[in-house]
TrEMBL record:
InterPro entries the record matches: KR_dom, NAD(P)-bd_dom_sf, Sc_DH/Rdtase_CS, SDR_fam
Keyword set includes Metal-binding: no
EC numbers for this chain: 1.1.1.14
Protein's UniProt name: L-iditol 2-dehydrogenase
Enzyme type, top EC level: oxidoreductase
Domain of life: Bacteria
Keywords: Monooxygenase, Oxidoreductase
Family classification: Belongs to the short-chain dehydrogenases/reductases (SDR) family.
Length: 257
Protein backbone atom coordinates (compact mmCIF):
# COMPACT_ATOMS: atom_id res chain seq x y z
CA UNK A 1 0.00 0.00 0.00
CA UNK A 2 2.50 2.60 -1.21
CA UNK A 3 -0.05 5.45 -1.14
CA UNK A 4 -2.03 4.47 1.94
CA UNK A 5 -4.29 7.36 3.05
CA UNK A 6 -2.57 9.83 0.72
CA UNK A 7 -4.96 12.28 -0.94
CA UNK A 8 -4.50 12.40 -4.71
CA UNK A 9 -6.10 14.67 -7.30
CA UNK A 10 -6.18 13.12 -10.79
CA UNK A 11 -7.35 14.84 -13.97
CA UNK A 12 -8.32 13.15 -17.22
CA UNK A 13 -9.50 10.29 -15.01
CA UNK A 14 -12.41 9.05 -17.10
CA UNK A 15 -10.51 7.06 -19.72
CA UNK A 16 -7.17 5.71 -20.87
CA UNK A 17 -4.07 6.41 -18.80
CA UNK A 18 -5.91 8.55 -16.27
CA UNK A 19 -8.41 5.78 -15.55
CA UNK A 20 -5.66 3.16 -15.22
CA UNK A 21 -3.71 5.34 -12.79
CA UNK A 22 -6.87 6.09 -10.80
CA UNK A 23 -7.51 2.36 -10.38
CA UNK A 24 -3.92 1.76 -9.31
CA UNK A 25 -3.86 4.66 -6.83
CA UNK A 26 -7.00 3.29 -5.17
CA UNK A 27 -5.46 -0.19 -5.06
CA UNK A 28 -2.44 1.35 -3.33
CA UNK A 29 -4.64 2.87 -0.63
CA UNK A 30 -5.02 6.46 -1.85
CA UNK A 31 -8.03 8.71 -1.36
CA UNK A 32 -8.78 10.00 -4.84
CA UNK A 33 -10.39 13.15 -6.21
CA UNK A 34 -11.16 12.25 -9.83
CA UNK A 35 -11.77 14.93 -12.44
CA UNK A 36 -12.62 15.00 -16.13
CA UNK A 37 -15.01 16.77 -18.48
CA UNK A 38 -17.50 13.90 -18.40
CA UNK A 39 -18.09 10.74 -16.39
CA UNK A 40 -17.44 7.51 -18.29
CA UNK A 41 -19.12 4.20 -17.50
CA UNK A 42 -15.78 2.76 -16.40
CA UNK A 43 -15.09 5.60 -14.01
CA UNK A 44 -18.65 5.46 -12.66
CA UNK A 45 -18.09 1.79 -11.81
CA UNK A 46 -14.81 2.65 -10.08
CA UNK A 47 -16.50 5.36 -8.02
CA UNK A 48 -19.30 2.98 -7.04
CA UNK A 49 -16.78 0.40 -5.81
CA UNK A 50 -14.93 2.92 -3.61
CA UNK A 51 -17.57 5.41 -2.39
CA UNK A 52 -15.79 6.37 0.84
CA UNK A 53 -12.42 6.92 -0.82
CA UNK A 54 -13.37 8.83 -3.96
CA UNK A 55 -14.81 12.18 -5.00
CA UNK A 56 -15.89 12.89 -8.59
CA UNK A 57 -15.90 16.44 -9.96
CA UNK A 58 -16.67 17.39 -13.58
CA UNK A 59 -13.83 19.75 -14.38
CA UNK A 60 -12.61 21.88 -17.28
CA UNK A 61 -9.01 22.74 -16.44
CA UNK A 62 -9.06 25.70 -18.85
CA UNK A 63 -11.42 27.47 -16.43
CA UNK A 64 -9.99 29.15 -13.34
CA UNK A 65 -13.25 28.64 -11.44
CA UNK A 66 -13.16 24.87 -12.12
CA UNK A 67 -9.55 24.63 -10.91
CA UNK A 68 -10.39 26.51 -7.71
CA UNK A 69 -13.46 24.35 -7.16
CA UNK A 70 -11.44 21.17 -7.64
CA UNK A 71 -8.85 22.18 -5.05
CA UNK A 72 -11.41 23.51 -2.58
CA UNK A 73 -13.63 20.42 -2.79
CA UNK A 74 -10.64 18.09 -2.42
CA UNK A 75 -9.61 19.85 0.79
CA UNK A 76 -13.17 20.05 2.07
CA UNK A 77 -13.69 16.29 1.56
CA UNK A 78 -10.31 14.88 2.59
CA UNK A 79 -8.59 17.72 4.47
CA UNK A 80 -5.50 18.12 2.30
CA UNK A 81 -3.84 17.27 -1.03
CA UNK A 82 -0.70 15.11 -1.07
CA UNK A 83 -0.45 14.18 -4.76
CA UNK A 84 -1.40 15.74 -8.08
CA UNK A 85 -1.51 13.52 -11.17
CA UNK A 86 -1.77 16.27 -13.80
CA UNK A 87 -2.94 14.19 -16.75
CA UNK A 88 -5.66 15.97 -18.76
CA UNK A 89 -4.66 16.73 -22.36
CA UNK A 90 -5.97 16.82 -25.92
CA UNK A 91 -4.43 16.01 -29.32
CA UNK A 92 -4.65 17.50 -32.80
CA UNK A 93 -2.45 17.51 -35.90
CA UNK A 94 -2.14 19.11 -39.32
CA UNK A 95 0.59 19.87 -41.88
CA UNK A 96 2.67 22.81 -40.68
CA UNK A 97 1.51 25.14 -43.46
CA UNK A 98 -2.13 24.36 -42.69
CA UNK A 99 -1.97 24.42 -38.87
CA UNK A 100 -4.68 26.73 -37.59
CA UNK A 101 -4.81 29.33 -34.85
CA UNK A 102 -7.88 27.63 -33.40
CA UNK A 103 -6.06 24.30 -33.04
CA UNK A 104 -3.06 26.06 -31.54
CA UNK A 105 -5.26 27.83 -28.99
CA UNK A 106 -7.16 24.70 -27.96
CA UNK A 107 -4.00 22.65 -27.48
CA UNK A 108 -2.14 25.29 -25.50
CA UNK A 109 -5.22 26.14 -23.41
CA UNK A 110 -5.54 22.56 -22.15
CA UNK A 111 -2.07 21.03 -22.39
CA UNK A 112 -0.08 24.01 -21.13
CA UNK A 113 -2.23 26.70 -19.53
CA UNK A 114 -4.59 24.28 -17.79
CA UNK A 115 -1.72 22.03 -16.74
CA UNK A 116 0.29 24.93 -15.29
CA UNK A 117 -2.48 26.72 -13.42
CA UNK A 118 -3.73 23.49 -11.86
CA UNK A 119 -0.15 22.74 -10.80
CA UNK A 120 0.09 26.24 -9.33
CA UNK A 121 -3.20 25.96 -7.42
CA UNK A 122 -2.33 22.57 -5.94
CA UNK A 123 1.21 23.70 -5.12
CA UNK A 124 -0.17 26.68 -3.20
CA UNK A 125 -2.30 24.32 -1.15
CA UNK A 126 0.67 22.02 -0.50
CA UNK A 127 2.80 24.96 0.62
CA UNK A 128 0.00 26.07 2.95
CA UNK A 129 -0.19 22.58 4.44
CA UNK A 130 3.56 22.56 5.07
CA UNK A 131 4.12 18.82 4.58
CA UNK A 132 5.54 18.67 1.06
CA UNK A 133 3.90 16.72 -1.72
CA UNK A 134 4.25 15.05 -5.10
CA UNK A 135 3.24 16.55 -8.45
CA UNK A 136 3.37 14.41 -11.58
CA UNK A 137 2.74 15.98 -14.98
CA UNK A 138 1.99 13.95 -18.10
CA UNK A 139 4.26 14.85 -20.99
CA UNK A 140 4.93 12.62 -24.04
CA UNK A 141 7.71 11.33 -26.23
CA UNK A 142 6.36 14.03 -28.56
CA UNK A 143 7.79 16.56 -26.12
CA UNK A 144 11.27 15.18 -26.76
CA UNK A 145 11.30 15.95 -30.50
CA UNK A 146 9.46 17.71 -33.28
CA UNK A 147 7.18 15.98 -35.75
CA UNK A 148 6.21 17.44 -39.11
CA UNK A 149 2.46 16.86 -38.71
CA UNK A 150 2.24 17.37 -34.95
CA UNK A 151 3.97 20.72 -34.33
CA UNK A 152 1.48 22.24 -31.87
CA UNK A 153 1.10 19.07 -29.78
CA UNK A 154 4.86 18.48 -29.64
CA UNK A 155 5.38 22.05 -28.48
CA UNK A 156 2.79 21.69 -25.71
CA UNK A 157 4.40 18.53 -24.40
CA UNK A 158 7.87 20.10 -24.52
CA UNK A 159 6.41 22.92 -22.44
CA UNK A 160 5.24 20.37 -19.86
CA UNK A 161 8.83 19.16 -19.45
CA UNK A 162 10.10 22.72 -19.09
CA UNK A 163 7.45 23.70 -16.55
CA UNK A 164 8.17 20.51 -14.62
CA UNK A 165 11.82 21.49 -14.28
CA UNK A 166 11.06 25.09 -13.30
CA UNK A 167 8.37 24.10 -10.81
CA UNK A 168 10.64 21.50 -9.25
CA UNK A 169 13.29 24.13 -8.55
CA UNK A 170 10.76 26.66 -7.25
CA UNK A 171 9.02 24.16 -4.95
CA UNK A 172 12.04 22.21 -3.69
CA UNK A 173 12.41 24.47 -0.59
CA UNK A 174 8.88 23.39 0.38
CA UNK A 175 9.62 19.66 0.07
CA UNK A 176 7.42 19.31 -3.02
CA UNK A 177 8.81 17.00 -5.71
CA UNK A 178 7.73 17.74 -9.28
CA UNK A 179 8.33 15.19 -12.03
CA UNK A 180 6.82 14.20 -15.36
CA UNK A 181 6.13 11.00 -17.25
CA UNK A 182 6.69 10.82 -21.01
CA UNK A 183 4.66 7.94 -22.48
CA UNK A 184 5.33 6.61 -25.91
CA UNK A 185 2.53 5.33 -28.12
CA UNK A 186 -0.21 4.02 -25.83
CA UNK A 187 -3.28 2.11 -27.00
CA UNK A 188 -6.05 4.29 -25.57
CA UNK A 189 -9.42 5.39 -27.02
CA UNK A 190 -7.69 8.61 -28.14
CA UNK A 191 -5.55 6.60 -30.56
CA UNK A 192 -8.58 5.86 -32.72
CA UNK A 193 -8.82 9.58 -33.47
CA UNK A 194 -5.03 9.88 -33.85
CA UNK A 195 -4.97 6.99 -36.31
CA UNK A 196 -7.80 8.57 -38.33
CA UNK A 197 -5.89 11.86 -38.56
CA UNK A 198 -2.72 10.12 -39.74
CA UNK A 199 -4.78 8.14 -42.27
CA UNK A 200 -6.14 11.39 -43.69
CA UNK A 201 -2.89 13.33 -43.80
CA UNK A 202 -0.58 10.47 -44.85
CA UNK A 203 -2.98 8.61 -47.15
CA UNK A 204 -2.94 5.44 -45.04
CA UNK A 205 -5.59 2.80 -44.58
CA UNK A 206 -7.42 2.99 -41.22
CA UNK A 207 -5.41 1.13 -38.60
CA UNK A 208 -2.16 1.19 -40.57
CA UNK A 209 -0.49 3.98 -38.59
CA UNK A 210 -1.34 2.26 -35.34
CA UNK A 211 0.18 -0.98 -36.66
CA UNK A 212 3.32 0.85 -37.82
CA UNK A 213 4.00 2.67 -34.57
CA UNK A 214 3.45 -0.48 -32.52
CA UNK A 215 5.84 -2.47 -34.68
CA UNK A 216 8.49 0.27 -34.39
CA UNK A 217 8.64 0.12 -30.57
CA UNK A 218 11.79 -1.76 -29.47
CA UNK A 219 9.72 -3.91 -27.07
CA UNK A 220 7.50 -4.81 -30.03
CA UNK A 221 4.10 -3.37 -29.09
CA UNK A 222 2.19 -0.24 -28.22
CA UNK A 223 1.94 0.55 -24.55
CA UNK A 224 -1.16 -0.16 -22.51
CA UNK A 225 -2.59 2.30 -19.98
CA UNK A 226 -1.61 -0.04 -17.14
CA UNK A 227 2.02 0.21 -18.27
CA UNK A 228 2.01 3.82 -16.99
CA UNK A 229 0.44 3.10 -13.62
CA UNK A 230 3.56 1.72 -11.94
CA UNK A 231 5.61 4.80 -12.78
CA UNK A 232 2.78 7.04 -11.55
CA UNK A 233 2.70 5.18 -8.22
CA UNK A 234 6.48 5.23 -7.87
CA UNK A 235 6.78 8.99 -8.42
CA UNK A 236 3.94 9.62 -5.94
CA UNK A 237 5.42 7.38 -3.24
CA UNK A 238 8.16 7.77 -0.63
CA UNK A 239 10.38 5.68 -2.93
CA UNK A 240 10.79 8.87 -5.02
CA UNK A 241 11.44 11.32 -2.17
CA UNK A 242 14.87 12.22 -3.59
CA UNK A 243 13.75 12.52 -7.22
CA UNK A 244 12.60 15.84 -8.66
CA UNK A 245 12.78 17.82 -11.94
CA UNK A 246 12.93 14.58 -13.96
CA UNK A 247 10.90 13.29 -16.90
CA UNK A 248 10.63 9.51 -16.87
CA UNK A 249 10.24 7.82 -20.27
CA UNK A 250 7.73 4.95 -20.23
CA UNK A 251 7.75 4.08 -23.91
CA UNK A 252 9.10 0.60 -24.58
CA UNK A 253 12.50 2.00 -25.55
CA UNK A 254 11.36 4.55 -28.16
CA UNK A 255 13.40 7.36 -26.64
CA UNK A 256 16.73 7.00 -24.88
CA UNK A 257 17.95 9.70 -22.50
Amino acid sequence: MKLNNKVAVLTGAANGIGLAVSRRYLAEGALCVLADLQLSDELAALLASHPERTLWLPTDITLEADIDRLVNHAVARFGRIDILYNNAAIFDMAPLLEASRDSYQRLFDVNVKGMFFLLQAVARQMVLQGHGGKIINLSSQAGRRGEALVSHYCATKAAVISYTQSAALALAPHGICVNAIAPGVVDTPMWQAVDALFARHEGLAPGEKKRQVGAAVPLGRMGRPDDLAGAAVFLASTDADYITAQTLNVDGGNWMS
